[in-house]
Amino acid sequence: xxxxxxxxxxxxxxxxxxxxxxxxxxxxxxxxxxxxxxxxxxxxxxxxxxxxxxxxxxxxxxxxxxxxxxxxxxxxxxxxxxxxxxxxxxxxxxxxxxxxxxxxxxxxxxxxxxxxxxxxxxxxxxxxxxxxxxxxxxxxxxxxxxxxxxxxxxxxxxxxxxxxxxxxxxxxxxxxxxxxxxxxxxxxxxxxxxxxxxxxxxxxxxxxxxxxxxxxxxxxxxxxxxxxxxxxxxxxxxxxxxxxxxxxxxxxxxxxxxxxxxxxxxxxxxxxxxxxxxxxxxxxxxxxxxxxxxxxxxxxxxxxxxxxxxxxxxxxxxxxxxxxxxxxxxxxxxxxxxxxxxxxxxx
Length: 347
Description:
- By secondary structure, this protein is of the alpha/beta class.
- The protein has twelve helices and eleven strands.
- The strands form two sheets. Strands 1, 2, 3, 4, 5, 6, 7, 10 and 11 form a nine-stranded mixed β-sheet that branches.
């Protein structure tokens, strides 16, 4: 087959078997599928073993929890296909999505392709990402780099015309990449657990890669599924404040820009962690109040699971992609700063 599929953790364990059933119902039987997980509870692993007897896949099961970009690099290394779909483990797939994504990449000679990603449940009703663009703004102390989703939160039925194929950003919920591009990049930056899609988009831009949007390939990021308490440990590990700070530091160092650090760290990630814990321990949250619950319960649990999981590893170093030329980075950022609002920088 021309295209392999790699499935990696996002923020839950229990979403994986459900997502895999959707995947296997919508791809040909001979597609090489690689599933990477780590630290997964026994019941979920039993479900995976049962599923593997129905539809074989390559299962990479690690003895410790793994961050998404680590899992992506591990999974891609197990493939030999020209094209690779990389998907999170909480995706539901619409019939024909795979063929539409692959055909689009071949027809347009794309190096990376974003499908039409909805957010649910329910599936395929509300748009989350119809491609997007990089945005750069010059500030007194430098340049701030960000992204914008196209048609975010627009009902799919109300989207009279989806955007053209030109695109900058592939959301890591689900994307297709040419293996040659991933090799040229030197892999994905394992220091990042947030802003990784912007890092990928910038690398693609600097390298002159062709990034496009495939409207006929539809998947749904099942963000609004009920939270299962069994997933809390991984959720706290994956979104740990320590890893968020490391991500923001690494991103700013790589690109020589600033990020809206407080927004990413506190307004989004910290609240996201807390909501998961509050769902698991609602009575304790009400008894302690918001601030004490977050500092006495969430922060302590988070530190404990991170220390525990890192102690299980023999190697703590993270893969860092190939270094790009500073002049090429500066040129790409200057082009983004000078571009009209909403203009796309991809070729």
